[in-house]
Amino acid sequence: MKDHQPTGEAARLPRHIAVVMDGNGRWAEQRRMPRTAGHRAGVKAARTLIESCGRRGVHALTLFAFSSENWRRPKQEVSTLLDLMLRTLRKEASKLHENNVRIRVIGDRDRLGGTLCHQIERVEALTADNTGLQLVVAVSYGGRWDITRACQRLASRVADGSLDAEDIDEGMLNDGVALAGLPGPDLLIRTGGECRLSNFLLWQLAYAELYFTDVLWPDFTEAHLDRALTWFAGRERRFGGVPAMLDGTAGRA
Ligand code: IPE
Ligand code: IPE
Ligand code: MG
C-alpha cells in the first residue's frame, strides 16, 4: 500500500475511493418503511457506484458494508444485513466478473456464518484474475481489529525468532493490514451526515481526503459521486510538505 499520487492529470482522479455507506435506516424511517427496506435500497446505490467507478477508471473502491460494532444491532437487523450480503454476492457475482471486477472481502470472517464465508471464497476465487475495478467489501470489519491482527502476526514472528522487534517498520504494518497491495485510499466519502470514521480504515486513511455529505446512502447517485470527485480534484495534497513540493515528490519516503 503506497500513499503517493501520480503527477499530472491522472492525479486528479482518486485511484482508490473508500466509502462509508451510511443513512439507510433514516432513509427508510423517512418513508415509514422498515430499516431493512433502507438496506435493500442501499444495495442498489452500491451497484450504481460500482458501475460509475468502473466507467471512470477508478482503480479501487472499498465499501464499508458492516462494521465490527454493527454486531451490536438487534439480532433481526444483523441477520437481515448478512443475508442481504449473501444474496447480493450470489446475484451480482457473474455480472461483476463479466465486467472484469475483482472482488475481495475484508473483515473478521470468524464471526460470519459458514454459508456466507463459502460464498465469499467462491466470489474471490472467481474474480481473482480480473484486472478492472478492484472492489473491496468490508464486512465485520473494524480498523482496530485490522491493526490488532497485523500486530499479532508480527508479534508471533518475534516470538518464534524470525523477526527482530527493532526491525518492525511502517512498511511491515502496511503489508500486514487489510488492503495491502492496493494504493491507500485517496478519497473517503461518508454519506448520512456524520463526520466520523466509525472505526473504518484507521491505518489506511492517514492521508485520505475526507468528504462528508448529508445525502443518505440510498439517495447517493452518480451526480453525487461527480460532486465528490470535483471537490477532490480541487484539493491540494501536501503529505506534510509545502506547496512548492507538489511535483509529485511530496510524501515519498
Ligand atoms: C448504514 O446505514 C448501513 C450499515 C451500517 C450496515 P445505517 O443502518 O447505519 O443507517 P442510519 O445511520 O441508521 O440511518
Ligand atoms: C458505519 O455506520 C458503518 C457502516 C456504514 C457499515 P454506523 O451507522 O454503524 O456508524 P455510527 O454508529 O453512526 O458511528
Ligand atoms: Mg448509521
Element order: H for helix, E for strand: EHHEHEHEHHEEH
Total domain units: 1
Number of distinct helices:
7
Hetero ligands: 3-methylbut-3-enyl trihydrogen diphosphate, magnesium ion
What's the name of the CATH homologous superfamily?
A: Decaprenyl diphosphate synthase-like
In CATH, the topology is named: Undecaprenyl pyrophosphate synthetase
Strand content is 5-15%
**Strand arrangement, major sheet:** 3-4-2-1-5-6
Average the pLDDT over all residues and give the rounded result: 94
Q: How far is it from the N-terminal to the C-terminal residue, by CA?
A: 13 Å
Uncertain segments are 249-253
Second-tier CATH architecture: 3-Layer(aba) Sandwich
CATH class: Alpha Beta
Largest sheet: 6 strands, parallel
Query: Assembly type of the shown chains?
Result: single chain
- Report the C-alpha radius of gyration, rounded: 19 Å
Commentary on this structure:
The protein is an alpha/beta fold and 253 residues long. It has a single domain, classed as Decaprenyl diphosphate synthase-like (Undecaprenyl pyrophosphate synthetase), CATH 3.40.1180.10. The protein contains 7 helices and 6 strands, in the order E-H-H-E-H-E-H-E-H-H-E-E-H. It has helices at residues 24-30, 35-56, 75-98, 114-127, 143-159, 170-176, 222-233, and strands spanning 16-20, 60-67, 102-106, 134-141, 187-190, 209-212. Strands 3-4-2-1-5-6 form a 6-stranded parallel β-sheet, sandwiched between helices. Helix 2 packs parallel to helix 3 and helix 3 (75-98) runs parallel beside helix 4 (114-127). The radius of gyration is 19 Å and the shape is globular. The two termini are 13 Å apart. Bound molecules: 3-methylbut-3-enyl trihydrogen diphosphate (2 copies) and magnesium ion. One 3-methylbut-3-enyl trihydrogen diphosphate (IPE) binds next to helix 1.
